[in-house]
């Protein structure tokens, strides 16, 4: 089992297929050890490009989806990013690599056990620029707002209003919207306007919370 070789092959495939283009995203995906974020019995599948079970009815996103979302958000070093749905912490780690030591990732998880496990893994791997918060991610995290970028790793009925409010002017928000037929929606805040772009069909677990599916 050569995970490093598996990782290199899957990243090369994603580059060929056009999911990832920027050096920042490619380097981050090559650096973060996905195997550290998944249950022991699934480690051999770490670089199979598919979602994997992480417990509590949740999944780690497929590698191409993490790459695609990172590209669409146009993440840059030094940015402050809000992630809704920490899960196992893998996506937060990739984002943390891209925004760098001068950046910050604030990640909210509603399931305390997952938050605790993710935080432990992130600390072990040295991601000190990630803060994991237990709470209702659909309400955002007001104490550290506003954010340059916000992304949601579960599908809701609509973009939650608190997230739009906590986004900086000129900031971008990315989330899947819909229950059965979901679309990945990119929203850009320009003054009082929110410009919406449909980035195609996706499949995510449902977003649970006050502004999500109850």
Brief overview, please?
The chain has 214 residues and is α/β, with parallel strands linked by helices.
* CATH superfamily descriptor: Vaccinia Virus protein VP39
Shape: globular
CATH class, anyone?
Alpha Beta
Helix content: 25-40%
Q: Biggest β-sheet, characterized? A: 7 strands, mixed
**H/E order of the elements?**
HHEEHEHEHEEHEEE
Span between N and C termini?
42 Å
Number of strands: 9
Mean pLDDT: 96
Walk across the major sheet and give the strand order.
Answer: 5-4-3-6-7-8-9
How would you characterize the overall build of this protein?
By secondary structure, the protein is an alpha/beta fold. The protein has a single domain (3-202), classed as 3-Layer(aba) Sandwich (Rossmann fold), CATH 3.40.50.150. Helix content is 29%, strand content 28%. It contains six helices and nine strands, in the order ααββαβαβαββαβββ. The strands form two sheets. A seven-stranded mixed sheet has the order 5-4-3-6-7-8-9. A two-stranded antiparallel sheet has the order 1-2. The longest helix is centred in the N-terminal third of the chain and has 14 residues, at 3-16. It is globular and about 50 Å long.
């Amino acid at each position: 089992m050569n995970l490093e070789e598996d990782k290199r092959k899957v990243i090369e495939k994603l580059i060929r297929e056009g999911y990832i283009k920027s050096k920042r995203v490619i380097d981050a995906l090559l650096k973060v050890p996905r195997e550290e974020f998944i249950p022991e019995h699934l480690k051999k599948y770490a670089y199979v490009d598919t979602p994997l079970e992480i417990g509590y009815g949740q999944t780690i996103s497929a590698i191409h989806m993490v790459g695609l979302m990172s590209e669409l958000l146009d993440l840059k070093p030094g940015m402050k990013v809000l992630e809704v749905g920490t899960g196992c912490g893998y996506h937060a780690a990739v984002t943390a690599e891209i925004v760098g030591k001068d950046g910050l990732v604030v990640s909210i998880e509603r399931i305390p056990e997952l938050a605790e496990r993710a935080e432990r893994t992130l600390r072990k791997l040295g991601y000190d620029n990630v803060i994991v918060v237990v709470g209702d991610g659909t309400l955002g995290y007001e104490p550290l707002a506003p954010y340059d970028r916000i992304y949601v790793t579960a599908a809701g009925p609509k973009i939650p209003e608190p997230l739009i409010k906590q986004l900086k002017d000129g900031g971008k928000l990315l989330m899947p919207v819909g229950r059965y037929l979901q679309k990945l929606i990119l929203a850009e805040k320009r003054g009082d306007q929110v410009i919406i772009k449909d980035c195609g069909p996706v499949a995510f677990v449902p977003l649970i919370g006050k502004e999500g599916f109850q």
